[in-house]
């Protein structure tokens, strides 16, 4: 088993390298040099040359005949490995400082949102799975697809207008001197409601797969009650796909929510990302993409190692 | 399993409670001014600021030699860091400025503990050399470019400095001379009457060398200024808080102003010591709905009017609606020093050699409809480049400039087609944005062109790409505008000077020897009636050649609650928060009356 | 498990897998809802195809001209204006129709791109194994590490306004092309992984071994024998992924990275968000309804197709 863990660890090295290569190709090769955009309106050629030198865009991409290590790619490897993403060109602040600051705010939004919607959708999907094939199932599924089709934005606009402003139940926007929990209530609620459709659909499939298993039939045949079969057997066995889902969703939680954060003024990573897209700040977009991928690699690794601890039959393929 | 869930929810709660910095302070005697800003603050370093939002907050922290009188109109300059107005030599080339000797920088750790650092003339020289330094990559070099003796040479020198070496700021610059600590002598290459306005413009604010060296490139996060406020908390991408600067020398609220200022209440605080507010808090809100909701809830003291809520706030007679009046909200409108246009690239073969085509487009655009659709009538129809609030505005311009007239547009379009050999290639319009606001504008322009029998394709792009296209002269037509930094119309006319062709500010790549001759003559003239005549003459040449379709001049609408006093709009000055006063009791009452959390 | 492999082997032996399909079609026809949904999908596709025909042959047809002003601005839905009019007095109905063309174009191209990348790569990886397999697995594991939405946005961002140089042909990328390239280039991972798994399973089955013993080349085995036997997986996968592609178009358009010169549902929703606070709800509703109907139809049909084509998941 130890050898499995070691091999699994070694396996992440090419993956991390792949992620570095991918971000490099996207943002340095395809995206390219944005020095003239940084320089702003009416900048001279010298200013642009200066910026190119500062960001290292004047160096060759992959191959340098004079100094093998003095290439953009090698610098990129070095920088991403040390989480040094340079400075955002829009405001010259260190990108890593922005990300560190934003992560907490994003987590405070997405963690409760994720777990609340998980709990609700698992419960609903259990009930729906039990009534599968009936009109109730159809109605809920119809509602789910409707919920998935209604644009996220409508949920936000309506929630903010009615719940926040008109009825005054929640604060409508982030406010510096407020206790933080208050202004998270409304975005969390909106997020949960708008995401429910897709979640219920997904867990219904998971539950249905379990319901078809032999052990469920056996349990029913034994004469066990519906509730006890659902909660004792089905839920317990569905826990494995659910937990896998949860663990692999954690890296996404760090990234926050694009629209919710912008409309409710939560200064998290989603807001940062959406702003960076608008201003073509490749420095930030690249850094967040990279960190998202690295987190995924780490959590994927953790899940696999946990599985190997639980189930010794697993081997490295 | 239960235990895990328990741990998890505990973790969750911890994240909620401690994950983010939240400070609730509500000292009732403290006067706090709340505002919102709709765009990100990029940085608080005057030498590098190129956007209005950043300038608005940096201007509370940094000061310049001169400042605009808060109440007087037309706009008038008064000394701020200078002790008096400059002494100008006969030939207009030498400016001698005496500084106040009671100005200190804000307390900051870069000066050491308990040190009060006094402002000297050297801080100006340092700040300006810094803008000239190519290694600093300032956005504001245009302010000094080709103006001050020796500064361009200093810039050349910084280009020769190799990587790893430092630029020597002790190198003397001929045109920046400091006979003593409180005297600054500026020598110009040629007369530059607008310099006085530039000395009131934020980029020319003095910088302390110690601060720049201590913070290095992070000086944008750690402003060290001489102004009435200094940075308290700044959460980038969320909110900014400014607090009083204990080292500020103090100032009195002005006692004179326009005739209407007394009945309007702007002189009620005359002679009192400013600043009034202890803290300024401004929250970043990029979407319209939340900012409007917060204003109505009384969380924000002043606000613009979002396009979608305009009819809710302003009625057909351009007055406040009853709902707004019931809430005690006040309306201020004022003219922006701005002009927006559709520009033609005069180096594009199709457009350059076809004046009827440019004329046809000039007559095809329905300006009034545009102003109604996209600004809720918050604009005035433009006929020329100089906006109406400038004193050089030509009262007869509406008879000279082009206006919306489909019949004439069609006529010109026919002529243009003939000139082009029968067919007209599809025209391309570069739109500086990709979101819905710009798409609607694009749709509207397509319709206008279509009515005139012209075919146009809109090319939507983000702002950086747009700038790039303009700079490389690869856009055929483009939508753009200009907001003047100073109350001098030369600021607008320079946009057509042939030596300013892209990448300079002349994005039209327009070149006319006749215009250039007049421009070179007027740019060195002091303000006088003859100069106004020349301004108008130059403008008429531009209108005749039609390198652009002038669409509108902006008019700003600002709403304030009735607990906010001394909110007189100003088109050029930003550092005005020191004059604002808040009646906190009144605000509390309102917040209780209207639903609030 | 055993029964299935026997089943498919025998079917291949008889008639190159046709019975799997005819069997599935028979089952599908029995499901009334699924057939109805299929009809709805056909209608959407026909609208798109029809609008293409109108564009190509310049048929002067009022319904196809979405950019014409048909009445006053902001008219509510009614007898005269089916779904009302927008801020320039254009027909919301026509825009919604035109949106079907944009969305279906995007989803189709994206599907084609991701199938043509994912299927051959997956088949090669599964068939050859060894270093080729490792390389391909490495490639898609890397891609799948990046959160999907970030990846799509990043691709769309860097591809926007670029010019693609394909063997000397310069193709300027704008609007729709950016969107489907971004979606296509990022979403082949799932299908690649599935195909690889299936090919590994099928590789040592009798029919493949038989083909090899006749001396058939690797290419022939992969494309003539293996792929036809696993292709139903591709079909199922894409009937379900199609909705995702349509929704991705909506998100990209909303972020200003999508099509701009002709209407799309995403662009309609984006522009309607400015009208909504004023009480003009119809443009948002029309676009949402258009998305809702096709999403529902595709979901139901996709589920049914999976049930019928994939014997393992058969419920009856």
Just give the CATH class of the largest domain in chain A. Mainly Alpha
CATH superfamily of the domain at 338-554 in chain B: Dipeptide-binding Protein, Domain 3
Which percent band covers the strand fraction of chain A?
Answer: under 5%
CATH superfamily of the largest domain in chain A, by name, is MetI-like
Structural class of the helices, strands and pairings of chain A?
A: mainly alpha
Helix count, DSSP H or I runs of 4 or more residues of chain A: 13
Q: Which percent range describes the beta-strand content of chain B? A: 15-25%
N-to-C span of chain A: 14 Å
Average pLDDT for all residues of chain B: 88
CATH architecture descriptor of the largest domain in chain A:
Orthogonal Bundle
Main sheet of chain B?
8 strands, mixed
How many distinct folded domains of chain A? 2
**CATH architecture annotation name of the domain at 338-554 in chain B:** Roll
Residue share in helix of chain A: over 70%
Would you give an account of this structure?
The complex is a heterotrimer of chains A (317), B (597) and C (316). Chain A has helices at residues 2-30, 35-39, 45-55, 72-81, 95-130, 135-149, 152-166, 180-211, 214-221, 226-254, 258-264, 269-278, 282-310. Chain A is an all-alpha fold and 317 residues long. Chain A folds into 2 domains: 2-81, no CATH class; 101-310, MetI-like fold (Orthogonal Bundle). In chain A, helix 7 (152-166) packs across helix 8 and helix 10 runs antiparallel to helix 13 (282-310). Chain B contains 20 helices and 22 strands. In chain B, helix 11 (355-364) runs antiparallel to helix 14 (406-419) and helix 18 runs antiparallel to helix 19. Chain C is mostly helical and 316 residues long. Chain C has a single domain, classed as MetI-like fold (Orthogonal Bundle), CATH 1.10.3720.10. Chain C is 72% helix and 3% strand. Chain C has helices at residues 2-15, 18-30, 32-57, 92-128, 130-145, 148-159, 176-186, 189-203, 206-213, 218-254, 265-275, 282-309, and strands at residues 163-166, 169-172. In chain C, helix 4 packs antiparallel against helix 5, helix 4 (92-128) runs parallel beside helix 8 and helix 8 runs antiparallel to helix 10. Mean pLDDT of chain C is 79; it is low at 1-17. Classes of the chains: A mainly alpha (317), B alpha+beta (597), C mainly alpha (316). At the A-B interface, helix 2, helix 3, helix 5, helix 7 and helix 8 of A face helix 1, strand 12, helix 7 and helix 16 of B.
């Amino acid at each position: 088993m130890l050898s499995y863990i070691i091999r699994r660890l070694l396996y992440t090295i090419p993956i991390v390298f792949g992620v570095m290569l991918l971000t490099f190709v996207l943002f340095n090769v395809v995206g390219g040099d944005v020095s003239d955009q940084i320089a702003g309106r009416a900048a001279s050629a010298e200013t642009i040359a200066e910026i190119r030198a500062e960001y290292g865009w004047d160096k060759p991409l992959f191959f340098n005949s004079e100094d093998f290590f003095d290439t953009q790619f090698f610098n990129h490897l070095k920088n991403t490995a040390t989480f040094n993403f340079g400075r955002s060109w829009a405001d010259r602040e260190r990108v890593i400082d922005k990300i560190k600051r934003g992560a907490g705010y994003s987590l405070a939004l997405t963690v409760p949102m994720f777990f609340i919607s998980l709990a609700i959708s698992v419960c609903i999907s259990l009930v729906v799975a039990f009534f599968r094939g009936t009109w109730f199932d159809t109605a809920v599924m119809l509602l789910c697809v409707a919920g998935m089709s209604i644009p996220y934005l409508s949920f936000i606009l309506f929630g903010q207008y009615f719940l926040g402003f008109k009825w005054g139940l929640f604060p409508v926007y982030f406010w510096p001197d407020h206790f933080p929990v208050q202004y998270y209530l409304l975005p969390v609620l909106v997020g949960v409601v708008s995401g429910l459709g897709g979640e219920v659909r997904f867990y219904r499939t998971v539950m249905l797969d379990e319901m078809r298993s032999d052990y469920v039939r056996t349990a029913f045949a034994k004469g066990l009650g519906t509730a006890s079969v659902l909660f004792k057997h089905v839920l317990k066995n569905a826990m494995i796909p659910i937990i896998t889902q949860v663990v692999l969703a954690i890296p996404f939680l760090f990234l926050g929510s694009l629209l919710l954060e912008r409309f409710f003024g939560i200064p998290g990573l989603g807001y940062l990302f959406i702003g960076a897209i608008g201003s073509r700040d490749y420095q930030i977009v690249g850094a967040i993409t990279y960190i998202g991928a690295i987190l995924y690699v780490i959590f994927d690794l953790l899940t696999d190692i946990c599985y190997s601890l639980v189930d010794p039959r697993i081997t490295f393929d | 399993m239960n235990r895990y869930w328990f741990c998890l929810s505990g973790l969750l709660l911890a994240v909620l409670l401690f994950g983010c910095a939240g400070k609730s302070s509500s000292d009732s005697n403290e006067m706090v001014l709340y505002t919102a800003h709709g765009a990100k603050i990029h940085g608080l370093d005057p030498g590098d600021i190129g956007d209005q939002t950043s300038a608005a907050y940096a201007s509370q922290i940094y000061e310049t030699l001169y400042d605009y009188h808060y109440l007087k109109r037309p706009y008038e300059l008064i000394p701020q860091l200078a002790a008096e107005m400059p002494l100008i030599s006969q030939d207009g080339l030498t400016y001698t400025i005496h500084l106040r000797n009671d100005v200190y920088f804000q307390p900051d750790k870069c000066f050491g503990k308990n040190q009060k650092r006094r402002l000297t003339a050297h801080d100006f020289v340092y700040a300006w050399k810094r803008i000239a330094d190519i290694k600093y990559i300032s956005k504001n070099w245009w302010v000094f470019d080709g103006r001050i003796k020796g500064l361009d040479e200093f810039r050349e020198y910084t280009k020769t400095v190799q990587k790893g070496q430092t630029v020597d700021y002790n190198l003397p610059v001929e045109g920046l001379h400091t006979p003593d600590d409180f005297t600054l002598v500026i020598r110009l290459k040629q007369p530059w009457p607008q310099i006085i306005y530039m000395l009131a413009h934020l980029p020319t604010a003095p910088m302390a060398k110690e601060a720049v060296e201590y913070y290095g490139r992070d000086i944008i996060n750690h402003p060290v200024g001489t102004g009435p406020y200094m940075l308290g908390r700044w959460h980038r991408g969320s909110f900014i808080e400014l607090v009083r600067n204990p080292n500020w020398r103090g100032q009195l609220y002005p006692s004179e102003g326009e005739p209407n200022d007394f009945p309007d209440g702007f002189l009620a605080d005359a002679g009192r010591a400013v600043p009034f507010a202890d803290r300024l808090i401004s929250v970043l809100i990029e979407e319209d709905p939340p900012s409007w909701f917060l204003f109505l809830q009384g969380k924000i003291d002043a606000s613009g009017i979002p396009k979608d809520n305009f009819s809710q706030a302003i009625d057909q007679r351009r007055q406040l609606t009853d709902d707004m009046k019931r809430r005690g909200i006040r309306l201020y409108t004022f003219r922006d020093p701005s002009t927006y246009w559709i520009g033609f690239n005069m180096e594009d073969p199709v457009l350059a050699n076809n004046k009827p085509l440019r004329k046809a487009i000039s007559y095809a655009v329905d300006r009034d409809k545009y102003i109604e659709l996209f600004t809720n009538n918050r604009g005035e129809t433009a006929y020329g480049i100089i906006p109406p609030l400038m004193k050089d505005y030509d009262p007869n311009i509406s008879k000279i400039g082009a206006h919306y007239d489909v019949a004439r547009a069609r006529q010109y379009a026919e002529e243009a087609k003939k000139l082009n050999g029968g067919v007209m290639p599809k025209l391309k319009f570069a739109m500086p944005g990709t979101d819905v606001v710009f798409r609607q504008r694009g749709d509207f322009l397509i319709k206008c062109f279509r009515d005139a029998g012209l075919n146009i394709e809109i090319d939507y792009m983000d702002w950086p790409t747009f700038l790039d296209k303009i700079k490389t002269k690869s856009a055929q037509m483009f939508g753009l505008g200009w907001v003047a930094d100073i109350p001098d119309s030369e600021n607008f006319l320079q946009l057509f000077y042939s030596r300013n062709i892209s990448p300079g500010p002349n994005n039209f790549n327009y070149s006319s020897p006749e215009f250039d001759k007049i421009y070179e003559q007027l740019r060195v003239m002091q303000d006088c009636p003859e100069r106004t005549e020349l301004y108008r003459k130059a403008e008429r040449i531009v209108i005749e050649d039609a390198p652009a379709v002038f669409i509108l001049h902006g008019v700003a609408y600002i709403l304030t609650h009735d607990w906010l006093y001394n909110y007189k709009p100003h088109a050029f000055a930003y550092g005005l928060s020191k004059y604002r006063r808040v009646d906190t009791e009144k605000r509390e009452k309102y917040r209780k009356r209207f639903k609030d959390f | 498990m055993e029964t299935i492999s026997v089943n498919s082997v025998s079917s291949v032996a008889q008639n190159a897998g046709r019975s799997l399909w005819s069997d599935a079609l028979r089952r599908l026809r029995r499901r009334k809802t699924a057939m109805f949904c299929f009809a709805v999908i056909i209608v959407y596709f026909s609208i798109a195809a029809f609008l293409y025909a109108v564009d190509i042959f310049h048929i002067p047809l009022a319904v196809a001209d979405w950019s014409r002003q048909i009445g006053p601005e902001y008219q509510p839905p009614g007898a005269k204006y089916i779904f009302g009019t927008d801020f320039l007095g254009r027909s919301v109905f026509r825009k919604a129709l035109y949106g079907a063309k944009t969305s279906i174009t995007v989803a189709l191209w994206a599907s084609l791109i991701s199938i043509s990348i994912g299927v051959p790569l997956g088949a090669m990886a599964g068939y050859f194994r060894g270093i080729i397999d490792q390389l391909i697995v490495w490639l898609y594991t890397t891609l799948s590490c990046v959160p999907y939405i970030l990846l799509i946005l990043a691709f769309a961002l860097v591809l926007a306004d670029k010019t693609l140089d394909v063997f000397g042909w310069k193709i300027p990328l704008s609007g729709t092309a950016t969107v489907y390239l971004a979606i296509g280039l990022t979403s082949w991972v799932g299908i690649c992984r599935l195909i690889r798994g299936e090919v590994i399973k099928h590789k040592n089955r009798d029919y493949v071994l038989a083909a090899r013993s006749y001396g058939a080349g690797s290419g022939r085995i992969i494309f003539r024998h293996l792929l036809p036997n696993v292709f139903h997986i591709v079909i199922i996968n894409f009937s379900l992924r199609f909705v995702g592609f349509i929704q991705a178009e909506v998100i990209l358009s909303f972020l200003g990275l999508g099509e701009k010169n002709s209407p799309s549902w995403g662009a309609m929703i984006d522009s309607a968000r400015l009208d909504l606070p004023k009480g003009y709800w119809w443009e948002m509703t029309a676009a949402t309804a258009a998305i809702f109907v096709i999403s529902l139809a595709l979901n139901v049909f996709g589920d049914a197709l999976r049930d019928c084509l994939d014997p393992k998941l058969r419920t009856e």
